[in-house]
Amino acid sequence: METTKKIRVEVLSGGRTGYQVPIFLKGITTQKVYTKWLNRKANAHFKRDRKHSGSKFTRQEYKEAIHKAVQESNSRDAYTGKLLKWELISRFNNAEAKLGKRKYMRKFAQMPTVDHVNRSHKKLNFNICSWQVNDSKSSMTLKEFIKLAKEII
User: Cα–Cα distance between 87 and 28 in angstroms, integer?
Assistant: First the structure.
């Protein structure tokens, strides 16, 4: 029983170095960049959810849920199926964005981001999608977003 628990903890934490870069991202991003991105995304969602909805989940649980979503994405946008540009993670620069405005921002349209899937107090559920899709979806539920997309087309 003790061995099983040890293995489970190691898998959840990604081993000694943290959450391992998924195989499909090897050669696209480094462990250091992936870890930085995962930490930043988990912290941002943790703080925002705690402030807006009083979420009781821990930072670690956010990290686990986001890492799981990355693994399940297989490098694709959950909504469009398009390949995401993982080489762009942790490269966005606010100062350059202010100078370059829309031209700069367009370069990051397919950058992976984390989207809440129907927020719940019982379970953390995330999808990985492009910044462009996430920005368009905003705080809508998936059902509301699809309805809007159909109205547009």
Answer: 6
